[in-house]
Amino acid sequence: MNDAEMQKTGDDIVDVLRSIFDPEIPVDIYELGLIYDVQVSSEGDVKILMTLTSPNCPVAESLPEEVKQKVGTIAEVKDVEVEITFDPPWSKEMMSEEAMLELGFL
Fold first, then answer.
1. Domain boundaries, position 8
2. Number of domains present in the structure of the chain
3. Which pLDDT does position 24 carry in this prediction?
């Protein structure tokens, strides 16, 4: 995969991430700021570094699995690794302006 294809795949991944919603907050996980990093290798391997709104999040097990499954449906993606981190911990300041507007924070 060349640089342009890796960029296109990265854009496709972001589109998929925008279709996944936190069940407690009516905003997608990308706009919520739960996605810290997305890396795409030239071989089509994807590594996603993400967090949850709290360590006790009720979807702590199912949300990363949903991310892995949905990103894995992209044709160019060969393998998906999802890593959860709480460093730095999520806060509402990590949300996009769009998410803050949606939730009435602006």
1. 3-92
2. 1
3. 79
Residue 54 belongs to a domain with what CATH number?
3.30.300.130
Q: Answer whether residue 34 shows pLDDT above 80.
A: yes
Domain membership of residue 50 (yes or no) is yes
In a domain, 102, yes or no: no
Global pTM exceeds 0.70: yes
pLDDT surpasses 90 at 44? yes
Q: 13-17 long-range CB contacts below 8 Å, 24 or more apart?
A: 13/38, 13/40, 13/46, 13/48, 13/71, 13/74, 13/77, 14/38, 16/70, 16/71, 16/73, 16/74, 17/67, 17/71
Both structure tokens of 103 = 């939730």
